[in-house]
Design brief:
Elements: H1 21-29, E1 43-45, E2 48-56, H2 66-73, E3 77-84, H3 87-100, E4 107-111, H4 112-121, H5 140-144, E5 156-168, H6 169-174, H7 181-187, H8 192-205, E6 212-214, H9 217-225, H10 245-259, H11 273-278, E7 282-288, H12 291-299, E8 307-311, E9 317-325, H13 332-342, H14 345-355, E10 358-359, H15 362-366, H16 368-371, H17 383-393, H18 404-421, H19 425-440
Parallel strand pairs: 2-3, 2-4, 6-7
Antiparallel strand pairs: 1-2, 4-9, 5-7, 5-8, 5-9, 5-10
């Protein structure tokens, strides 16, 4: 079986602050106007093609040797990639450059929470990739997320975020719960309320202090809503967060967990969460595939073999990205070829093996390097099989809205009002709804 090596950094698509806001803005804007053709920075000189890329987080292209390999295979091509660690800052700068029509790179990364807004408001700024040869290898719902109503595709998929539950075997044993991953999965099979019920059993059975069943109520909320085809918006683009039964059910269960002592009151990737991993302050966390690398790094070598991975109650997707080509790029056709190569099944399989970024390619999902992968850190868990099965359960249609990422963060903040400020679920709900309406119009 293939083993995925432990990596030093994680391919998070959420707002991990790897660099400060000011530094990230300087990184993105500092060389945005270094070339012609709309200020993308790319061009052709003396027969050499220069392609610029604007990326965020750890998408894997600059962190591995993929760009070097492409340049070696295409000696007339030079690639300049710049990475902002903070996606929120990256996106703010991207919006500024799109509005100005300058400062853009030839290739721009697109985070899933921003996809719908760009499709609805900026599709004309991106080249159409619908004619890319062989693009049918993607999961059917992946490209739908970056497609306009008339069929234009503004990006090709990189990774996705199928979900599982990461859990501490030693803490489960101390609480009298099963530790075998198949038995653990049966505890909550088919229903997130069973997951919360397992938390009640854990709380009742665990004899020590300072250990909660789960890290955060917001993680539970996200896992529940992202297993549905509609979350905050309907197909017509209308906000439905107040009336969608999926959102209401997720809020009710997460709020109950927040108010009953089942959580460690730690929002994922916010201050305190990393030390919580290292100090064993919670026994479970809902984990998309890309999160495993972060857990293994922050929990540290001392916890190797204590963690395991079990199937989630229901399939869901949290995270994922795309690569788009700017319409006014002076090297548009060359950039299209690079994007197609970087998102091809072979490269997606390679990035999974190197970094754990889970493929959006159906073909890559079936490749031995993915399907047979196990994780030594997570007790030899068959992560390729577990996350691959979860990917197949994700609804074929996922409706996104313009402010999906913003709304998700506001709901997470709302649940924190219950966990950390002792607000009632009703009061926190009213505050959250008010904030969403102000942010999303």
């Amino acid at each position: 079986m293939t083993r995925v090596s432990r990596v030093l950094r994680t391919g998070l698509r959420t707002r991990l602050v790897a660099v400060s806001t000011a530094a990230a803005l300087a990184l993105i804007a500092g060389c945005g106007d270094s070339g012609g053709g709309g200020g993308t920075g790319g061009g052709v000189e003396n027969g050499k093609v220069t392609i610029t890329m604007g990326l965020f987080g750890v998408m894997g292209f600059k962190e591995t040797d993929l760009l070097e390999r492409y340049m070696k295979e295409n000696p007339n091509v030079r690639i300049k990639a710049e990475v902002a660690g903070d996606e929120q800052t990256y996106y703010t700068a991207l919006q500024t450059h799109l509005a100005a029509g300058s400062g853009l790179k030839d290739i721009q990364g697109i985070e899933i929470g921003r996809a719908k807004e760009l499709v609805d408001t900026q599709a004309d700024k991106f080249a159409d990739l619908s004619g890319t040869p062989g693009k049918d290898h993607f999961l059917p719902w992946k490209l739908n997320q970056v497609s306009t109503k008339d069929g234009k595709v503004i990006g090709l998929g990189t990774d996705i975020g199928p979900m599982a539950v990461c859990y501490r075997k030693d803490l489960f044993q101390q609480a009298g719960l099963p530790t075998d991953r198949e038995e653990v999965a049966r505890l909550w099979e088919g229903d997130w309320s069973k997951f919360a019920a397992a938390g009640d059993r854990f709380k009742a059975g665990f004899k020590g202090d300072g250990v909660a069943f789960m890290d955060s109520a917001s993680g539970l909320f996200n896992a529940m809503i992202y297993g549905s085809s509609e979350q905050f918006y309907d197909k017509q683009g209308n906000l439905i967060h107040q009336d969608n039964p999926v959102v209401k059910e997720a809020w009710t269960l997460a709020a109950k967990a927040a108010g009953s002592g089942l959580t460690a009151k730690l929002r994922q990737f916010q201050p305190g969460w990393d030390p919580g991993l290292a100090n064993s302050t919670f026994a479970t966390t809902v984990c998309p595939a890309w999160m495993l690398a972060h857990i293994s790094e922050k929990a540290g070598p001392g916890n190797k073999g204590k963690w395991d991975v079990a199937k989630a109650p229901k399939g869901a997707n949290w995270g994922g990205s795309f690569l788009g080509v700017v319409e006014r790029s002076p090297v548009k056709e060359e950039a299209k070829k690079l994007v197609a190569w970087l998102t091809a099944p072979e490269q997606q399989e390679y990035l999974f093996q190197k970094l754990g970024n889970f493929p959006s390619s159906q073909q890559a999902l079936k490749a031995p390097g993915v399907a047979d992968a196990t994780s030594e850190y997570f007790s030899g868990a068959p992560i390729g099989r577990i996350f691959g099965a979860a990917a197949q359960e994700i609804p074929n249609e996922q409706v996104l809205g313009r402010k999906d990422g913003t709304i998700k963060d506001l709901f997470s903040q709302g649940l924190t009002l219950i966990e950390s400020q002792d607000k009632s679920p009703d009061e926190a709900w009213r505050t959250t709804v008010d904030r969403v309406e102000k942010a999303a119009g």
